Amino acid sequence: MHVIIVGAGPSGLVLSLILARASIQVTLLDSEATIDSRPRAAHYAPSAVRVLQQAGVLADVRRDGFMPQDMTWRKIDGTPIVTLKDCSQSRHNPEALTVLPLNLLGKLLLKHAEDNPKIELGWNQRVVDIGQDAGRAWVVTRDQAGDLVEIWGDYVVGCDGANSQVRKSLFGEKNFPGKTWHAQIVATNVYYPFEKFGYDDINFIIHPTDYYMAARITTDGLWRVSYGEDTTLTLDEVIAHQPAKFARMLPGHPQPTDYRLLNVGPYRIHQRCADAMRVGRICLAADAAHLCNPFGGMGLTGGLVDVGGLAECLIGIAEQRVDAEVILNVYDRVRRGVYHTIIDPISSSNFLRVSATDPETAVEKDEYLAMVKRAGDDEGLRKELDDVSSLIVLLSRGLRDFFKGEGGL
Ligand SMILES: Cc1cc2nc3c(=O)[nH]c(=O)nc-3n(C[C@H](O)[C@H](O)[C@H](O)COP(=O)(O)OP(=O)(O)OC[C@H]3O[C@@H](n4cnc5c(N)ncnc54)[C@H](O)[C@@H]3O)c2cc1C
């Protein structure tokens, strides 16, 4: 089997590695000259950790990353509202929540892909169209010289991110059902000693306008601060406003000389899911298929679970253990089901919790925070909470169960 993957982001790279480990030939194409290094994902929930294991990279990810300890929701003055102790449960869970900034994860994945003879990497190859017939699927790419080239395979997978050309070619330029929040989020990477102010590894600050997340993302003291900003500000205005925002929001009210800022990246946030994640021999995965806001880190986690499941489907097809038509429909149904029942509602409530909840009454009125508080003194409830947090893991495992029931594995 030969699979063409469009997009060498984290989802495309991980899918390539899993398929190549099963001796499937992969052509991985990207429109850019190398991987994207903007500050984006950093936290990978247990369901994604299992997929990193499937790709054979977990040991390296664990070597370079770490497993966070406590997670606290706070008022803007830093006062803790409630804390979830040992949020990754790293002592009990071999697939514990793991942190590694995406630029570092990307480099690590790329190294593994470059070392794998089953993966052919094509940079500066923008996919501009796709097609298929009964026995084959293909992409049309435009290279740097402007020449169009057709590349043929058995399947095409669009891992080409939020503005996916594969999705647009399948469903139309503007067809990506869902909504865009009336909010602008600014993601920054900054060296600043939050721990001196009693901040934990992950902190969510609840406030109507100055809401933010501050999370340690490396072991050498780099933090991700993602904060809400006025939607009317331009990029230049966001950058100019950042020192005033930090001085007002962060503990210790720092001036620019008190911290080292590495990146500032504003972006709009969405909750969207494509009408289908499979049309014939062409599939979509990760951001190309669905988007959510970043509070709670469910974007790439959901994307990695897509590619873990899709890889199992394609490997089953290559080994003639499953019916392609049946199993790819299962992929489509299960993964969109998980988006609509888990990722969309949970990530939406994560965002509303920090941006639209009264911090004074949050712990009484917000069901989740109330449960976190009660779980502090109740081991049984804590276990229940961890089980709820594992819901995505359980549902992602559903694909395997469907395999057995419908696909014949
Ligand atoms: C600030 C921020 C914080 C986040 N934090 C988290 C987190 O903690 N945990 C989490 O799970 N998720 C998080 N996310 C979401 C996460 O970063 C994304 O879900 C993830 O990067 C999507 O990966 P992807 O491989 O699907 O797409 P991308 O990373 O967007 O990669 C797509 C690739 O496709 C290429 N491409 C695009 N168009 C074409 C074309 N026509 N032809 C060829 N190649 C093309 C691009 O060059 C790119 O390399 C965060 C997002 C943001 C913005």
Automatic annotation (TrEMBL):
The keyword Flavoprotein applies. Residues 2-340 form the FAD-binding domain. InterPro entries: FAD-bd (IPR002938), FAD/NAD-bd_sf (IPR036188), PheA/TfdB_FAD_monoxygenase (IPR050631). Keywords: FAD, Flavoprotein, NAD, Oxidoreductase, Signal. SUPFAM superfamilies: FAD/NAD(P)-binding domain. GO terms for molecular function: FAD binding; oxidoreductase activity. Residues 1-16 form the signal peptide. This is FAD protein. It comes from Coleophoma cylindrospora.
